[in-house]
Write a structure and sequence with these properties.
Elements lengths: L2 H10 L11 H6 L3 H12 L1 H6 L5 H13 L29 H8 L9 H9 L1
Helix pairs in contact: 3-5
């Protein structure tokens, strides 16, 4: 729960793709239509997202599942990670509320400039 995690994740080059995998629990928790549309675009492409823009959340979740598992004729997307779990983290919308993004932003330019020199300054503090 600390901004230090965002700084270290960038500095160490942590790739969540190798240790995390989306599951039904994540998709079932996402209720925001805009975020679902963005995730659908991430995993299915802009064309799929545009074609299903008016679809229900249930339909969008199923298409996302199909893309992540390679089911129902969809190409399997390997290693997808939500933007908020990447280093540095990002949000899908301009609204606030993504804690990893807020913590990263609180670091100012330190995340983008994460170098051994910056880390040694942080350790000294």
């Amino acid at each position: 729960g600390s901004a230090l995690i965002e700084l270290l994740g960038v500095h160490l080059g942590v790739e969540m793709r190798g240790v995390w995998e989306a599951d039904d629990a994540l998709l079932d928790l996402i209720r925001d239509r805009e975020v679902l549309g963005c995730i659908l675009s991430d995993v299915g492409g802009a064309g799929v997202a545009t074609a299903n823009e008016g679809a229900t959340g249930k339909v969008k979740r199923q298409i996302i599942r199909d893309c992540l598992t390679g089911a129902n004729g969809r190409g399997k997307v390997e290693g997808w990670v939500p933007r908020w779990m990447a280093f540095p983290p990002a949000a899908y919308t301009l609204r606030d509320g993504v804690q990893t993004v807020s913590r990263s932003m609180a670091l100012g330019g330190l995340v983008e400039a994460a170098t051994p020199q910056v880390l040694s300054i942080a350790r000294a503090a």
